[in-house]
Design goal:
Number of domains: 2
CATH architecture of the largest domain: Alpha-Beta Barrel
Radius of gyration: 23 Å
Low-confidence stretches: none
Distance between the termini: 21 Å
Number of helices: 11
Helix content: 25-40%
Structural class: alpha/beta
Order of helices and strands: EHEHHEHEHEHEHEHEHEEEEEEEEEEHHE
Length: 375
């Protein structure tokens, strides 16, 4: 029986999205990114759905996520790209996980682990082309590539990839995009001259996958788009389907008169006789507190706005004279093809001045995931 509140995840939508992204990218191989528990959708079910949809790589932020994939029996190539000091590098090398290398210290750690294990590590060197986050600065790039080439010649590692990440691909036409592409080409030329022969070169995230054919190279990374959400506001991708629907049954309804203050601080006050519906989801579940008087909710046959302060475990919706009763579902966001008035994660992002990534990944562990579709 369904929990009163749950995030319903359509695994067929994730698989179909993977197929669509591969087609959109002209058949370029796809990495399905499953970091952050599959963007809140569940890492293992999402990974299996992405692979079923044609993804040939998986991507995680951290080694423990990649090891979780291996522990579940997933043998597809996996790249983990954030490696703080103290991470279980040796376990990753033993599990055949590709490791993103952003500086010499990480390279040395990986080489040491490979020598101890007596097997070559797989590394993907990251060049910082202008995001100024992870990755090796251009000035330090030749030295890192040379060190990696020496380690490869010694049999300690295989440089399986060279990669980077865009800063503004979600703003088509931004001048940094062309500059970063040019910098990436220069980095690849340096690696080639030094003698590296990476299996994959990649820089395209979801936004670049959708808008920049010249950024495809050997692999594209499908992150938020794999889950049916578009990283570029207003950009339409026909056929892409949101995979997550967040909903809860109404706990109770009550009639109140005009002038009734609602929820903490009385930040909403009724202006007529009306019905209030109590929805048992709150900021402990990932509903942003600043959705107070802003967050859209489908209840009855139309979208309403949260009425008053979002609390830890609940919020209230003023539904007027609609015949809403306890037990009916309130849908916070989902797929508008299910009902035309269904808000999307993008709608939530717009009213809260954030991005859909944050909306889906913040749905908390107290909210069960219920899965439909899949093998």
């Amino acid at each position: 029986m369904a929990h009163f509140a749950h995030a319903r995840v359509d695994l067929d939508a994730i698989a179909d999205n993977a197929r669509l992204l591969r087609e959109h990218a002209g058949g370029t191989p796809l990495m399905g990114v499953v970091k952050a528990d599959g963007y809140g959708h569940g890492m293992l079910p999402a990974a299996r759905a992405l692979l079923a949809g044609g993804a040939t790589w998986l991507g995680t932020a951290f080694i423990h996520e990649a090891l979780g994939l291996r522990a579940a029996g997933i043998t597809a190539p996996v790249l983990a790209w954030i490696i703080p000091p103290g991470e279980p590098v040796a376990e990753a090398v033993a599990a055949g996980i590709d490791l993103g290398v952003s500086d010499r210290a990480v390279l040395d750690t990986v080489v040491a682990a490979a020598r101890e294990l007596g097997r070559p590590a797989r590394v993907q060197l990251k060049i910082d082309t202008g995001l100024n986050r992870g990755g090796v600065n251009a000035a330090e790039w030749p030295a890192l590539v040379e060190a990696a080439a020496r380690a490869e010649d010694a049999g300690d590692l295989r440089v399986s990839g060279v990669w980077s990440h865009f800063a503004c691909a979600d703003e088509p036409g931004h001048p940094s995009i062309a500059l970063q592409l040019s910098n990436f080409h220069e980095a690849l030329e340096t690696a080639d001259k030094i003698g590296l022969t990476p299996e994959v070169r990649h820089i395209a995230n979801s936004a670049a996958l959708l808008t920049l054919p010249e950024a495809r190279f050997d692999l594209v990374r499908g992150g938020i788009a794999s889950y049916g959400l578009v990283p570029i506001p207003g950009f339409d991708v026909p056929g892409l389907r949101p995979a997550m629907t967040l909903r809860s049954r109404v706990a109770l309804t009550k009639r109140v008169g005009p002038g009734s203050g609602v929820s903490y601080g009385h930040r909403y006050v009724t202006d007529r006789d009306t019905t209030l519906a109590l929805v048992p989801l709150g900021y402990a579940d990932g509903v942003p507190r600043h959705a107070t008087n802003k967050g859209p909710v489908l209840l009855g046959e139309r979208a309403h706005i949260i009425s008053g302060t979002v609390c830890m475990d609940q919020f209230v919706v003023d539904v007027g004279d609609e015949p809403v009763e306890a037990g009916e579902y309130a849908v916070l966001f989902g797929d508008p093809t299910d009902h035309a008035a269904t808000p999307t994660a993008g709608d939530w992002a717009e009213v809260l001045d954030t991005i859909p990534y944050e909306i889906v990944t913040r749905v908390g562990a107290r909210v069960p995931r219920e899965y439909t579709g899949g093998a």
